[in-house]
Write a structure and sequence with these properties.
about 90 residues
Length: about 90
Amino acid sequence: MGVCVAANKIPGIRAGMCHDHYSAHQGVEHDEMNVLVLGSRVIGVETAHDVADSFLAANFIATEERFVRRYQKLLALEAKYAKTGPA
């Protein structure tokens, strides 16, 4: 879980922890998730392959207004809280 939290601190990253193929493709299709996080002690190798394949095959559904609105809200939050200088 820590990797997911850390990754989401980086501007432009929308990471999601997924344990099944549904959450992997739905995260991309609905929320424009662009980083897949897998728990190695939670799922097996075959399931990990299935989850990764689902993630890679998915595309954001830009024709669905509610998904676009949600994505725009995420971008606005990122812009509002993005650091402008060195840490």
